[in-house]
């Protein structure tokens, strides 16, 4: 099974089951260098569960865990069966990983080449657009559904349609678990989520599948408007430093499911602006990126793509760069800077993943987690608000030693950047007066001794 999951991952970018595996973190087919994630706390803490083990220079992930008594492959097979019974035709894309409660789980995931990001839940909106995700999976994810109103913000989880919830309240009978289960029943009823399946696998682990309504009509026919529907006129549209407001976002009247993968990647995105030119601009963008990636990035810059897995596009626009790389065995985190036009809903419509970010601030990820960074005309706008040095140092932080950056910009910007990266001992080359390729080395400044 481990092998077939691996093949699935290779064949299609974000197929439904692969996405789940990515979420579960405990995939069974990976080994990472201990020195890259030198944390033993998790190994100690999870000793009984066979989740992660140290073996000499490596950390191994045998695939155990409280939730996965018979291994993660067994669990995935089980939910796969359950799900196909309910809905066999749809392909679910997009990946999201939450809660880093134990030491550096997100760092482990990234080290293993699994898409993951850090976010605060419970006080601020997650930095994703509304209705972005097709499916949310929460296996013992420790969201306190019954406490502090945190659970009430389930709808800020941005699920478009389904939640898979598997945790002890689903299948254990003690008082605390019962209380959580009752809170979850009341909450999901109040927000019109339907239970479409509740089941127990052979090891006794339970799972519930909830479905979000497809229109706002159920919300309106509730006896009590609690939690209230959001007022779209006054509600902030952005999810960057936006406090949670505890209301349910309305479902657009013209609400359709995107076309199946892989057509979804190139067909007209549902959230594309309705202006006359938008569709033409979108298709031209897809075509331009396909040409640039094929002719310049892959063939012409001397980058070794075989060793690249974790990629970030720092100014992703419609996600054309990621779309052009779809046939390579890598994944792209598409970042939409908060001061650029909001194209993130389009990126999610295409079945790609991304986040909002302000490159004048630090990024929510661990150091040395990306293999390749790409930016296209990011610096012109950025340098109006902060120093280019801030962005360059952040790139240096998140990039793995030996990793590569590709920057497309004006020659003035490229020269400034080349100077800064040179001072960090990167090797850089400029191609066609338009592209800079930078390679980060293992150099660090001498330690300051006092
Ligand atoms: C590219 O990277 C792969 C994997 O790290 C390596 O095996 C291969 O030799 C590299 N190719 C070149 C041309 O450097
Ligand atoms: C720069 O910012 C403006 C808005 O502040 C935006 O309209 C524009 O698309 C951004 N990008 C570039 C490359 O100018």
Bound molecules: 2-acetamido-2-deoxy-beta-D-glucopyranose
Overall pLDDT score: 80
Report strand %: 15-25%
In whole angstroms, the N-to-C terminal distance is: 55 Å
Count of all domains: 3
CATH uppermost class of the largest domain: Alpha Beta
Number of strands: 14
Relative helix content? 25-40%
In CATH, the homologous superfamily of the largest domain goes by the name Vaccinia Virus protein VP39
Continuous helix count: 15
Strand order of the largest sheet: 10-9-8-11-12-14-13
Alpha carbon gyration radius: 22 Å
User: Can you summarize the main beta sheet?
Assistant: 7 strands, mixed
Shape: globular
Query: Can you tell me the CATH architecture of the largest domain?
Result: 3-Layer(aba) Sandwich
H/E order of the elements? HHEHEEHHEEHHEEHHHEHEHEEHHEHEE
Could you name the CATH topology of the largest domain?
Answer: Rossmann fold
Low-pLDDT segments: 1-29, 84-99
In words, what does this structure look like?
This protein has 450 residues and is an alpha/beta fold. It has 3 domains: 1-87, no CATH class; 119-257, Rossmann fold, CATH 3.40.50; 263-447, 3-Layer(aba) Sandwich (Rossmann fold). Helix content is 30%, strand content 18%. The protein contains 15 helices and 14 strands. It has helices at 2-11, 16-24, 41-45, 72-86, 105-111, 168-171, 175-190, 217-220, 263-266, 278-298, 320-324, 344-349, 379-382, 388-398, 411-423; strands at 31-33, 53-55, 58-60, 133-139, 159-166, 194-200, 206-211, 310-313, 331-337, 353-357, 370-376, 399-408, 427-431, 435-439. The strands form 3 sheets. It has a 7-stranded mixed beta sheet with strand order 10-9-8-11-12-14-13. The chain has a 4-stranded mixed beta sheet with strand order 4-5-7-6. Helix 11 links the parallel strand 8 and strand 9. Helix 2 runs antiparallel to helix 4. Residues 304, 306-307 line the site of one 2-acetamido-2-deoxy-beta-D-glucopyranose. Keywords: Glycoprotein, Membrane, Methyltransferase, Signal-anchor, Transferase, Transmembrane, Transmembrane helix. The chain crosses the membrane at residues 14-34.
